[in-house]
């Protein structure tokens, strides 16, 4: 989580005292991202038996790229 937090924080060029918001975002995204060990399901789906709704996510002044592995 700290690696993701540091990457988001450095890309957005925000003050270091805002790290707590980025760690919460990193944790939230981690729980809503598919994991290979769970057969491609998210922890959220495993717990609640439904896909997470991600329509509320928005950009926080930086561009994000997703790595899609074949």
Task: Please explain how this structure is put together.
By secondary structure, this protein is mostly helical. The protein contains 3 helices and no strands. It has helices at residues 2-12, 19-31, 43-48. Helix 1 (2-12) packs across helix 2 (19-31). The longest helix has 13 residues, at 19-31. The radius of gyration is 13 Å and the shape is elongated. The mean pLDDT is 77.
Shape: elongated
How do the SSEs run, as a string of H and E? Answer: HHH
As a whole number of angstroms, the C-alpha radius of gyration is 13 Å
**Beta-strand percentage range:** under 5%
State the assembly state of the protein chains. Answer: single chain
Low-pLDDT sequence parts? none
User: What is the count of DSSP helices, taking H or I runs of 4+ residues?
Assistant: 3
Average of per-residue pLDDT values: 77
- Profile the largest sheet: none
Helix content: 40-55%
- Strand tally is 0
* Category from helices, strands and their pairing: mainly alpha
How far is the N terminus from the C terminus? 24 Å
